[in-house]
Specification:
Length: 345
Amino acid sequence: MTHIASFLALRERMPLLDVRSPAEFARGHIPGSISFPLFNDTERAEIGTLYTQAGKQEAVLRGLALVGPRLAAMAEQGLELAGKAGEVALTCWRGGMRSASVAWLLEQAGLTTHRLPGGYKAYRSFNHGLFTRPWPLFVLSGMTGSGKTEILLELARLGSQVIDLEGLAKHRGSAFGAWPEEPQPSTEHFENLLADKLLAFDPSRLVWLEDECENLGSVNIPRPVYERLRASPLVILHVPRPERLARVLHGYDPAHNAFAAEGMDRIRKRLGDENHRKAKAALEQGDYGTAAGTLLDYYDRAYEKQLKNRPALAGEIRALPGEPVENVARKLAAFEASGVLSDQD
């Protein structure tokens, strides 16, 4: 286990405080860490400029002047966060002056501190190393509305190693895939979340993923992971079209009509003018079955086309009419254990 992995394990017994500025933290941070900024965004920019123009000494003095009045409050907050553990882990950008300064302050208050050597920058390099490992992936594929995500989540509950890429990205991977109620993370933080999942896995066991494009909305799957996904064996899930359509329509909220119309406009050229007009008219009239059916026809054709470029096929499974996702997940778990894919319970 590397020093990075050992440091990350500290999260299980103490808070991890990220002393970078709020903007740095918002772009990406170690999952589970708490923003504990030494400087706010404006102060960090001022000190950085001063360091470049006037040198380290002037920057340090200005930093002390800025943070001095709030040292007592920071120490009290650190004690509160540490609680009975009496320890905190700290990280900044490079593991340098900011984390050293906060460590000194909290140690004066009686806490034990642990700093990440190399800081967040070293952590990011560690993540990229995780992405290049030869993870044994199995990819669940199937047409839109097949319930792949639900099946994989059930498979995880059965004990398999599963990564829900769409859940991490807060996006379902199509023109209609955004989660209106939740913003997407940055690509940087998506990578951090993905790396955190991989770190918890046994690299000798299979990892299940859903078949995805390289982009999930504004988020990009790391190139090494995507290339391995594309080259890994597929298990193709077949679900009757009426059930797929019913799943797409289940729980649809008419309040999202404007969002759905925007998605139709984004794929107008590929959908074709006639299908675009038909789908939008049906949406406006509240005929959601016709609107969804028109879109499903388009996505089915697109799926069949892209599947021709995926030669690594491990097997196919057909969900019976009305078959619960729990049953399908059990079949996949049995396949993982035996290498034999069966449509029988």
